[in-house]
C-alpha cells in the first residue's frame, strides 16, 4: 500500500537536543528523510507512526482505533 499523506514531520536532533516540529501535508513517497526523524501518517486507513530508515519513512507502529498526535514534539498514538 502506497502512503499518500504525512500529517506531522518530526526531526529529533542528535544527543537529546529538543526536537523541532514542522507540520505539513506532502506525499510520503516524495519525502527524503534523515535517520532519527519520525512522522505521523496512515496505513490501512488508520493513523500510524513512521521512522526514517535508509532515507525513507518506514512503518513503525499502528495507532489502531486511536490517532497519531505530536506530544512535546514526538509522535504518540492517543
From TrEMBL:
<feature type="signal peptide">
    <location>
        <begin position="1"/>
        <end position="23"/>
    </location>
</feature>
<keyword id="KW-0732">Signal</keyword>
<protein>
    <recommendedName>
        <fullName>Carbohydrate-binding module family 19 domain-containing protein</fullName>
    </recommendedName>
</protein>
